[in-house]
Amino acid sequence: MSEPATGGATRAETPPPDPTSASTAELVGSLGEQIGTLVRDEVRLAQAEITQKAKRLGVGAGLFGGAGLVALLGLNGLITAAILGLANVLPGWLAAIIVAIVLFAVAGVLALIGKKDVQQATPPLPTETLASVQDDVAAVKEGIAR
Questions:
Q1: Residue 2's pLDDT is what?
Q2: How far apart (Å, rounded) are the C-alpha atoms in residues 52 and 58?
Q3: Which of 55, 44, 42 lies closest to 130 in space, CA to CA?
Q4: What number is the average pLDDT over the span 81-108?
Q5: Rounded to an integer, what distance in angstroms lies between the CA atom of residue 78 and that of residue 81?
Q6: How far apart (Å, rounded) are the C-alpha atoms in residues 143 and 146?
């Protein structure tokens, strides 16, 4: 990037006028610039917060996926043991069908519980940024009221 034509100073580096000695016109003139800077900073903060949360979510989801795969393999071993155990008293095909029906019933219950939880979930929001923006709005309203 090239240097601005203002001798190296950018708008972000220009300090706002001193409120005790500035005229109303100067204060109103700097208000737009300050609000623009504030909005840009808040947007950058929200982006950084969402990026950080997304990274944590990705790592956590990967670990849960790995744990789920290992648990599935263990469950396969237990299912095989249940079928072989029932095959000692029933024909093997009947033992397999009974175990499959039980597994489908468990899957149905889990699906219903999961559906309810998904419906109650809220979208991830940059909560810290929202609180900061609300504080900024309250401060601006308070400043205007004076």
A1: 45
A2: 10
A3: 42
A4: 94
A5: 5
A6: 5
Which residues neighbour 83 within 8 Å (Cβ) at sequence distance 6 or greater?
Answer: 92, 95, 96, 99
8, pLDDT greater than 50: no
Distance CA 81, CA 75 (A): 10
87, amino acid identity? A
Give the list of residues 6+ apart from residue 90 with CB closer than 8 angstroms, or none. 98
136 token code pair: 């900024």
Please answer whether residues 13 and 90 qualify as being in contact, where contact means their C-beta atoms are separated by less than 8 angstroms: no
| Torsion sign over Cα 126, 129, 133, 135 | positive
**Which stretches within the chain are classed as H helix?**
24-86, 92-120, 127-145
Tokens 């790592």 label which residue?
59
Dihedrals phi, psi of 58, to nearest 5 degrees: -65, -45
pLDDT class for 51, splitting at 50, 70, 90? confident
Cβ contact 79:99 at 8 Å: yes
Provide the pLDDT for residue 77. 96
* CB contact at 8 A, 42 and 34: no
